[in-house]
Amino acid sequence: MADHEAGAETAARRFRDDAHAAVEWVARYLEEIERYPVFPRVKPGEIRAMLPPEPPETPEPFDAVLADLDRVILPGITHWQSPMFFGYFPANASGPAILGDLVSSGLGVLSMMWATSPAATELETHVLDWMVDLLALPQGFRSAGKGGGVIQDTASSASLVALLCARERQTGFAANRVGVQGTLTAYTSSQAHYSIEKAAGIAGIGRENLRLIDVDRSYAMRPDALEQAIETDLAAGRSPFFVSATVGTTSSTGFDPVRAIGEICRRRGLWLHVDGAYAGSAAVCPEFRWIHDGLELADSYCFNPHKWLLTNSDCDCFYVADRATLIHALSILPEYLRNQATESGAVFDYRDWGVPLGRRFRALKLWFVVRAYGAEGLRQHIRRSVSLAQEFAGWVTADDRFELCAPAPLSLVCFRLKGSDAANERLRDTLNAQGEMYLIHTRLEGKIVLRLAIGGTYTERRHVERAWALIREAARQAG
Amino acid sequence: MADHEAGAETAARRFRDDAHAAVEWVARYLEEIERYPVFPRVKPGEIRAMLPPEPPETPEPFDAVLADLDRVILPGITHWQSPMFFGYFPANASGPAILGDLVSSGLGVLSMMWATSPAATELETHVLDWMVDLLALPQGFRSAGKGGGVIQDTASSASLVALLCARERQTGFAANRVGVQGTLTAYTSSQAHYSIEKAAGIAGIGRENLRLIDVDRSYAMRPDALEQAIETDLAAGRSPFFVSATVGTTSSTGFDPVRAIGEICRRRGLWLHVDGAYAGSAAVCPEFRWIHDGLELADSYCFNPHKWLLTNSDCDCFYVADRATLIHALSILPEYLRNQATESGAVFDYRDWGVPLGRRFRALKLWFVVRAYGAEGLRQHIRRSVSLAQEFAGWVTADDRFELCAPAPLSLVCFRLKGSDAANERLRDTLNAQGEMYLIHTRLEGKIVLRLAIGGTYTERRHVERAWALIREAARQAG
C-alpha cells in the first residue's frame, strides 16, 4: 500500500481498483439505507471498544478497511441521508455532489490564493455568481461590482466573518490592530442561531454585548424593539455596530423582517448580516423569494447549499456587498505568499475572505450539482419538500390530539401533542427508539415542541405518510 | 438527474455508473499528472471566460461535466499532487485518503455532536489518540486523561482556537462574556506563520499586541528575548498570556526551543501553543522526535497530516492538555441541540472544540491512511522525503554558484544563487514558466531565497535529480 514505492502510475492502478470497490460500498449503502435504524442503538464508548487500541504497524488490505465500515462504523451512524431522517435541518447530499467532492479530493489542490490553483478560485467566483442568479439575490453581491461570494465551511463561520467585517468597519480597522475596546454592541433576535452569540465571544465583543431582541408571535424579530434597544445603548454611550437577521430560524423557521431591519441599519450605520442558512435555498423558486425582501439593504448574507440544495457538507455561500472591507479586515501578506497575480490586484485570493489559509476545492461539488439538476431540478426539490410539509401540517391540524406551534411556511413543521412536556418528550423518545424515523424537539414559548424537518434528497410522500402513521400510533400508545 | 423522482434505489444505480466514470477520470489524472505544466499557463479571467455566464436551466448529462474537467478546469490547475511540485509545503493526498473522503461524502453525516453520528465522534477521538502513539506525543494529550484531540480544518483555525483558550483562561472566562479589555499581550517569533497575527486580530487582542520575538541564526525563537519582552510588558502593566512556538517554520523550517520556552510559560502562567503544522509529521520516525522536545510543557499543539502525512486537506490534528478549558471557552447549549448523551457528560461534542457547528466526518480519511500504510509505511514516506532533501542540499553545497541559506534538518531546502535578488527571482520565474517543476521563494535576512519543499506522495529520486538539472541549466542561462 506504500504508493510511493512504485511511483504514481502503479499507485493510480491500485487506486482504481480500491476506488471502484469504495464506490460499490457507497452505492450499496445508499440502496440499503432504509434498512438501518435512523438513530443508532449504541451507547457511548461502544464504537471505540470495537477498534484496536493501537495503530497498525504494517499495512492492511483495503478490503479489511471496507469490511470494518460495515462492522464498526455503520452501527454508530446517525443516518442523515435516510429519507426518514427529519431531525435538525437536512444535510442533503446527492450523487453529483459526492462526485464533485471525489474529483476535488483527487485533484488535491488548495484554493487559498488564485495562484495556488486559478481554476479553483475562478470556478468558485463563477458559481457563486450563478447562485446570485438562481436565487435572484441582490446584484450588489455579484463579483462584477464591489461585492462577491465565497464558500465558507458553515454558517457559523460566515457569521463570525460578518461580525469581524462589521467590527472593523465600525472601528476604522483599529480593533484588528490594537484590540477591541469595550463598548461595541451587537443585535440579533432571541430566536437566532447560537453561533451569533459564539461569534460575539470569539471576536472579543463579549456575549453579553449581544442583545437578543424580542420576537413577535410568528417568531420574527420586532423592528420596534430593535430600534428601542439601539437607542438605549446609544444613550448609555455604547457603540451599536452589527445586526444579524435570520430568514428561517432554526427552531421554527421564523422570518425576521429584513427590509424594516435594514432601514434601521442604514439610517444608523450598522452592518446588517442576514443568515439564510436553511431557508435561503428556497429562493430558487420565484414563489418563495418573499423571504429575501429587503436583502439589498444587507451588507452580508449567507445560505447553505449543504442544508437544502443537494450539496454535501461543507458548503456555505457567503456574500458581501463590499468585498474591500472584508479583505481589509482579514488579509495579511507574508513574503512566502507573495506572487505576481496577487500583486497585480486582478485576482481574488480567497484566504483573505475567511479564517483558514488552506481551502479545499469546494466549488466543484456545487458546480456539479447545479449542472446535474439544472435550475429546474433544484426548484423541483424545494417545491417537493415544501409541499410534503404543507400536507403534513394539514394532517396535524386535522387531528384533535395535536396542535401546530408555529407558522410552517416552508418545509419545517413544529407541532406537539396537546398535553405535557413530558408526554411530548416521551413521544419523541419512543419514535426515535423504534428506529424507523428520527426527529428532534425545540422549545417555543416555554413548551417542548417537536420538529419535523423535511428536505432530504430521497424523502418521498410515502415516507412522510409513514412518519405520520408512526407518530399517531406512538401518541395512541402514550395516551 | 433529479434523484428524488425515482427514489433512493434508482438514484443509487445512477450514482454507481457516474461514480465509476469519475473514478476513471481521477485515476487517469493521477497516471498522467506529469504531462501537465505544474503551474498552469493561464491569465486571470481565462478560466471564467470558458464558462457559460448563466447557470443551466435543465439538467446536463454527467459526461458533459466530466468533459469540462478536461476542457475548462485542468488548464487552470496548479498541480499540487505532481511529483515535480516543490512549492509551499506539500499538500499530499493518497489513494486511501481520497477514498476515506469518498466514503465520508457518501455517508453524508455531521459530527457536530456525539448524537449526530456516534461513530464519527468516536472514530475521531480514537484516531487522534492513535496519532499520539504514532508521533510519541505527550500522554497528556490523550483523551483518557484530561486532554484530547480534534480535527480542525487548518492550522490557522487551530491557532485561533488555542489563542481563544488562552484568552479565556487568562481572564477567568470573562473576555467571552464581556469582551476583551485592553492589555492582553501575546508572543511568537518573527518567523511564525502569519495566521498567529491574523488570529490576534480576530480574537480582539489586536495584531499590535502580538510581539514578534527575535530569532537566532537558525531561525529559532530566542528564549532570552522572549523573557525580556514579557518583562517589559509586565513592567508596562500589560497582561502577557499566550506564546505560540513553531516547530518547523514556513520560511525555512526553523525550530523554536520548545522546552526553554515552555519553562518560561510555566513559570509565568502563559499558555503555550506549539505549531507543528508541517514538521510535526516527521515524529512518526524516532530519529526526528527531537523536534518535540519539551512538548509536555505545551497547553496545545497541532500538526497537519494534510501536509506531509498522505492525508488530503482538510485535516489538522489539534490537541489540548486540558479539554475543559477549551470546551468552556467555546460551548453554548441551545435547546435544539439538547440531547441525553450530551447531558450525561459521557461524550465529546466536537462542535464545542472549534468554530464551526457542522463538521464533515474527516476522521475516516485519516483512519484509512493509517491502516493502508501502517506505521511502517508512514515512516518510510517521511524518511524518503528527508533523505531526498539531504541529497539535494548536498548538491547545492557542492556547486559554487549556489549557497544554502538555512539549516535543512528535514525536507525543505532553502538556497539561492550567489548574486542579486533579481537573479534569484529570474531563476524562479524561468523554472516555473517552463512548467516542468514549481517552487516559490521566501525572504531570509532580507534576501530572496528559493525554497525546494519535498514531501509529495509520488516524488521519487529521479524527480529531485531532474529538478536539480533544471535549476542548474536555468542558472547557466541566466548567468
The overall pLDDT average of chain A reads 95
Give the name of the CATH architecture of one domain in chain A: 3-Layer(aba) Sandwich
SSE succession of chain A? HHHHHEHHEHEHEHEEHEHHHEEHEEH
Oligomer: homodimer
Shape designation of chain A: globular
Please give the CATH class of one domain in chain A: Alpha Beta
Please give the order of strands in the largest beta sheet of chain A.
1-7-6-5-4-2-3
- Biggest chain-to-chain interface with counts: A-B, 174 and 174 residues
Rg of chain A (CA only): 24 Å
Proportion in β-strands of chain A: 5-15%
| CATH topology value of one domain in chain A | Aspartate Aminotransferase, domain 2
**Total beta-strand segments of chain A:** 11
> Would you tell me the structural class of the helices and strands of chain A?
alpha/beta
Q: Unreliable segments of chain A (pLDDT under 50, ≥5 consecutive)?
A: 1-5
Helix content range of chain A: 40-55%
Say which CATH homologous superfamily of one domain in chain A is assigned: Type I PLP-dependent aspartate aminotransferase-like (Major domain)
Task: State the end-to-end distance of chain A.
Answer: 59 Å
Architecture overview:
The structure is a homodimer of 479-residue chains. Chain A has 479 residues and is of the alpha/beta class. Chain A has a domain at 109-360: Aspartate Aminotransferase, domain 2. Chain A has helices spanning 7-31, 46-49, 62-73, 95-107, 118-135, 155-170, 174-178, 194-202, 223-235, 258-268, 305-308, 323-330, 340-344, 363-398, 421-434, 461-478, and strands at 148-152, 184-189, 210-213, 239-246, 271-275, 300-303, 316-320, 402-404, 412-417, 440-444, 447-453. In chain A, helix 6 (155-170) crosses helix 8 (194-202). The longest helix of chain A is centred in the last third of the chain and has 36 residues, at 363-398. Residues 1-5 of chain A have low confidence and may be disordered. At the A-B interface, helix 1, helix 2, helix 3, helix 4 and helix 5 of A face helix 1, helix 2, helix 3, helix 4 and helix 5 of B.
